[in-house]
Amino acid sequence: MVxxxxxxxxxxxxxxxxxxxxxxxxxxxxxxxxxxxQFTPAGLQSIRSLPDGGHFTILEKNAAVNAMEIxxxxxxxxxxxxxxxxxxxxxxxxxxxxxxxxxxxQKLLIKTQRRAQYRHSYFAQHFLYDLIDKTLVKxxxxxxxxxxxxxxxxxxxxxRSNNLYYWIISEQKRVQVTQDGRQNHIINGLTDxxxxxxxxxxxxxxxxxxSDYLAYLRFDESExxxxxxxxYGQDLYPTQSVFKYPKAGEKNAQVSLHxxxxxxxxxxxxxxxxxPYEYIPRIKxxxxxxxxxxxxxxxxxxxxxxxxxxMRENQTRVLLQEHDEAYVxxxxxxxxLNDNSFIWPSEQDGWRHLYHYNAQGELIRQLTQGNxxxxxxxxxxxxxxxxxxxxxxxxxxxxxxxxxxxxGTNTVRFSQDKGTNEADFSADFSHFIQKYSSVTxxxxxxxxxxxxxxxxxxxxxxxxxxxxxxxxxxxxxxxDSIYVNGNWLNTYVIKPKSIDLTKKYPxxxxxxxxxxxQQVADRWxxxxxxxxxxxxxxxxxxxxxxxxxxxxxxxxxxxxxxxKLGLYEVQDQIAAxxxxxxxxxxxPDKIGIWGWSYGGxxxxxxxxxxxxxxxxxxxxxxxxxxxxxxxxxxxxxxxxPQDNAQGYDAYAPLDHVSKMNGxxxxxxxxxxxxxxxxxxxxxxxxxxKANKPFDWLIYPDKNHGIxxxxxxxxxxxxxxxxxxxxLMTNQ
Length: 731
Prior knowledge:
By secondary structure, the chain is an alpha+beta fold. Helices cover 17% and strands 37% of the residues. The chain is built from twelve helices and 42 strands.
């Protein structure tokens, strides 16, 4: 009787599975579908936690009235408690993309008409809305950058035409702090191109806690060499975009620190000559309104000094020094507690962990320890004495949310499901919004308790996307590891769900491989994942291997590539391909590799140096010699070319074209301000001189992302055709 019931149950389960499988396979991915946005997960746009800790706001579209709204929600109930602002009555507010509430919640800064400058920087039109008297005021023109409220809500600081200003809200009056701003010469309050790209920040000024001081950086880039890009446009003659771009070994901008006191209207130049370091990658006011924390970094980027500048006592002293034989990572995790002690992450024990120092810079204790990395620090709750962070403790391909006491004890994991877990905490740490995804679960947003991590309610589960994707019956992505050159390397594989065991399949390897990066991670699909799925449906296997130099496996694993980018990473991809070639269902003569940016550098290198292991490669927007790339990134990992000529030249694709054996597709955008098209042009020239046949594709006026209109569809269709022609024929 029991056995009969089990069989009946199994029959039902199998029947459901079979019918679901048939339904799942009634649709096949197309390139158009991949790029039309239908697979983009829903999210929560511009979430802001309010100072009371009990509420948050979200920027949302109200289709019924064709307006953007900033809506207020209650953390405890999840219910919408009001509409803070609606654009329905303000036709001048076109293209709202972000906002900021004043600290007293009486004013609303509305950002519209965004125009991109570089990767992170932009220009925009800003409006100030008074939530009390319901008035709307336009602030200056459409070219303001990095507009922020002062902590007391009385002022707005901003940068315009490379000069720093503040705006007195009550008087609707601006005050100019600097006078010498000039394009391609002097920048005040904003970073230059290379700081923005490689140190990852744009706003180079900071308000003090009492709103009395504006600390800012000044960039003198007068002696930095200019790079010019032709902009072809639609007119009869092209124009040029000219900007300062310091290449490896060349002159950087001279950066200085200044502090403006609003009450006195005076500016102090901070003397840092005692520490003749090249970079000032971060400034941050401490809990003491008179004390500014300043990070200084030498040009080799292996010595960092954390300084304290005391305006009241007119003195500067060292809080902390850090040295690494390779390089010291720059981060945003410096956090001051109420007693002015601070949390600082470091790799000093071989893994990235959190450390607690007192106000004088003396180590109190190491807070986290073990063979894993702390990947984000969320903050500290002084009411209960607990801090919150994200780490890879459950495995390098996973991310989890943790809480622990400030004493480094009683560690609690808040996240339950394996995958990628992220947190956005409320101002008082009583709640957090958790974002979870895995290879099988699209982005899921929940409201959770900040006390124990328990889930309170679901905010967005992307069930519509999940159901849509299920209709396509995607091929499984499986995680594993491969033993290569003395190391177990994280790997994922995508095989056809109905693999023919009698068939030999071609293989396409995908990678990025840059220092500290990660491609093999348990998280939801991006656009490349869907394209890989499309290719697998056409009859190949996709493999990704994170080799030496990538992240989350400790300091030594990550920094082994120091001074020789392109050596160990290439060795690992070649050796991995050689092992993959031995798999029973793989055609060893049909293994390709592709990548973008650093991945483009790698894919070209692997084809050139692989001695026939790879039959084809696609290289998109590649660095072809590190001599062409920017100073901060390149020198961090390679040192100066004057000191490491062998490292720069021995592993560059440009120096190995004569060994090319296989088919190459080279792709670049002419308006790439990051990896200049010069890289590809020089490679094209070298390939022609070596009499090597290849395909190439240039996209006019497209940047490093090569997007806009049908551009991505066109690019991926071209890459698909190339793969089908050179990898999937004559299998």
